[in-house]
Specification:
alpha+beta, CNF1/YfiH-like putative cysteine hydrolases, six-stranded mixed sheet, 17% helix
Length: 275
């Protein structure tokens, strides 16, 4: 597939920890500190994926090959807005043969994928929800997390950090986290009853504005939860790009409804175990 050249000057500027890069499909976002330990990317509308069930091999294959694997080694999940963990490895007994299937109904169910298998690429899909990519500083293990308000209320990123520790002995202090584009507090009005779902989080009051129609700050919530899980503040990087605010570049379900496509966050262990 030919490289599609993109004028990076016209793209909105993320936080200083992130940069726009040229991908085979067009523009992609990358976190500099995370790239130092694990290859990854956050896609844009330039990679065409139509909706949550998109099984078309074309775009997925372009993505997987850009990450150095074939499509059958790209992990995709049936995301259910929770905090279930899927361990992705090719070892017999630890992963299902259907985990790398092109058919949506055969994808494993979950919103967190973890792996220390360098032959596997993890991915999550979003269209306002928060995509979070994690890697230990030694490059051995990685995680991809999908967290909307339900996943955030369930502490999905905390669960992910703990899963890396329990499964692969990754110390929270060694985790580098990249929080990709998602809906910002600027555009995320929520119902007054939503705060009750966050009662388990002591920090939650500061995640909601005091407006008549409260706004939820998922970026602050994600950062706070990563810190509580033991990730150092200097290793938490937030792109600070609102999906709602950039219709030419990013998909948003809140803005576009059922017509919204999906963005993908993908990551691969750099030096993990290979069966």
């Amino acid at each position: 597939m030919p490289i599609i050249l993109v004028d990076m000057i016209d793209l909105p500027q993320p936080s200083g920890d992130f940069e726009w890069v040229q991908a085979p499909w067009g523009a992609a976002l990358r976190c500099r500190p995370l790239e130092a330990v694990a290859p990854h990317c956050f896609t844009t509308r330039d990679l065409a994926l139509d909706g949550v069930r998109d099984e078309d091999a074309g775009s997925w294959q372009v993505l997987s090959r850009s990450m150095g694997v074939e499509i059958d080694m790209l992990v995709r999940m049936r995301q259910v807005h929770g905090a279930e963990v899927y361990v992705a490895r090719r070892d017999v007994g630890t992963t299902l043969p259907t985990s790398f299937s092109p058919a949506y109904d055969a994808w494993p169910e979950g919103d967190i994928a973890i792996s220390d298998d360098s032959s596997v690429v993890l991915s999550v899909r979003v269209a306002d929800c928060v995509p979070v990519l994690l890697a230990d500083r030694h490059g051995r293990a990685v995680a991809a997390v999908h967290a909307g308000w339900r996943g955030t209320a369930a502490g999905a990123v905390i669960v992910a950090v703990r899963a890396l520790a329990e499964r692969f002995h990754t110390k929270p202090a060694d985790v580098v986290a990249a929080v990709g584009p998602s809906i910002g507090a600027c555009c995320y009005e929520v119902g007054t009853d939503l705060a009750a779902h966050f009662s388990a989080h002591a920090e939650a009051p500061r995640w909601f504005s005091n407006d008549v129609r409260p706004r939820l700050d998922l970026w602050s919530a994600t950062r706070d939860q990563l810190l509580r899980a033991g990730v150092p503040a200097t290793q938490v990087h937030v792109a600070a790009l609102c999906t709602f605010d950039h219709p030419a570049l990013l998909h948003s379900y809140r803005r576009d409804g059922a017509r919204a496509g999906r963005l993908v966050a993908a990551i691969r262990s750099a030096r993990g175990k290979t069966p």
